Amino acid sequence: MTVVKAFAGMTRVPSVTFRAACPECRAYSELSASALLLAIGATSRTTFYSFTCPECGESVRKPAGERIVELLTGGGVRTLRLHSTL
């Protein structure tokens, strides 16, 4: 099977943007999935998403509950798993 045949009929996925607030400068920004990083830890305290504020350049880290994890992973955000699943 060729690559062309394997991907025939597939359409381009629309780009997803996320709205996030910076706690430092209080600016709201629309960020692409590539501007965010999701880290999934063993507990809710170690599960978070991070980004760099486009307004002030501050590195931002925020907790991510189950719904946020679902939205970010569904939107194509890069994900790091900080624990192993045995």
Instruction: From the alpha carbons, calculate the radius of gyration and give it in angstroms.
Output: 16 Å
Largest sheet: number of strands, sense, barrel closure = 4 strands, mixed
**N- and C-termini, Cα separation:** 35 Å
Oligomerization state of this entry? single chain
Q: Mean pLDDT, nearest integer?
A: 88
Shape: globular
Strand order of the largest sheet: 5-4-3-6
The beta-strand count equals 6
- Helix count, DSSP H or I runs of 4 or more residues: 2
Share of residues in strands: 25-35%
Give the uncertain stretches in residue-range form: none
Summing up helix and strand content along with how strands pair, one would put the structural category as alpha+beta
Element order: H for helix, E for strand: HEEEEEHE
Helical coverage, percent range:
10-25%
Provide a short characterization of the protein structure:
This protein is an alpha+beta fold and 86 residues long. 15% of the residues lie in helices and 33% in strands.
What does this structure look like?
- This protein is α+β, with helices and mostly antiparallel strands and 86 residues long.
- Helices cover 15% and strands 33% of the residues.
- The protein contains 2 helices and 6 strands, in the order αβββββαβ.
- The protein has a 4-stranded mixed beta sheet with strand order 5-4-3-6, with helices on one face.
- The longest helix is centred in the last third of the chain and has 9 residues, at 66-74.
- The protein is globular.
- The mean pLDDT is 88.
